[in-house]
Amino acid sequence: MFENVVSMSRHDKSCISRFLQCTPAVIDAKHFSCMSRARYFWGNLPGMSRTIIPLESDKLTLQDCLEKNCGRIARFEKINCITTKLTSVKQKKGRTLPVMISGDSQGPGDWLWCTEMERVFGLKSHYTDVANMSRIARQRLLGKAWSVPVLRHLLSPLRDYFKCQR
Q: Are strands 2-5 and 99-101 parallel, antiparallel or unpaired?
């Protein structure tokens, strides 16, 4: 399987398609999470272009990903793609932080905490909490990651071909 952003050039897309001898499936994480993260996926996995159906356990809004009982309120239901750039967490062309603190609706807002970004990607809390990495290092790591619910969507048809426990 090969993946790249949908904003890539048409020339690069056609070159990759020619060499891999297939057209890509377009899958956006926004169907499984609160983050828009459209990607091309090339491969020979069965059902790559099948209908997208989120699971009940998928966190579809930003509020679902925020820490509970901390007075954190999502300013947006869905957010833009989190990348390796620190400012990618800001919304509306990099001007607005995605979280407001309860009782301070006019304040500047707050950044997403690392555990919240991990939940946006479908990971367990503290998944990237290793080797005393900073918040920025953890965001850069996540910015290079694939969305777990998207991978689940792509790989789940393989259960029909291989013996596995559910």
A: unpaired
Owner of token pair 């001007």: 95
Q: What is the band of 94 on the pLDDT scale with cuts at 50, 70, 90? A: confident
Residues 93-111: b if buried by 16+ CB within 10 A, e if exposed: eeeeebbbeeeeeeeebbe
Distance CA 3, CA 69 (A): 37
Tens digit of each residue's pLDDT (9 = 90 or more) over 54-66: 999 999 999 999 9
> What backbone torsions phi and psi does residue 115 show, to the nearest 5 degrees?
-65, -35
Residue 30, number of CB atoms within 10 A of its CB: 19
Q: Supply the DSSP string of 26-79, one letter for each residue.
A: EEEGGGTSSB--EEEEE---TTTTSPP---TTS--SHHHHSPTTS-EEES-SSB
Spatial contact of 114 and 135, defined as CB atoms under 8 Å apart: yes
> Is residue 141 within 8 Å of 130, Cβ to Cβ?
no
Q: Is the pTM of this model over 0.85?
A: yes
Alpha-carbon distances of 159 from 67, 79, 96, 156, 165, rounded to whole Å: 33, 31, 42, 6, 9
Q: Encoding tokens for residue 142?
A: 């996540």
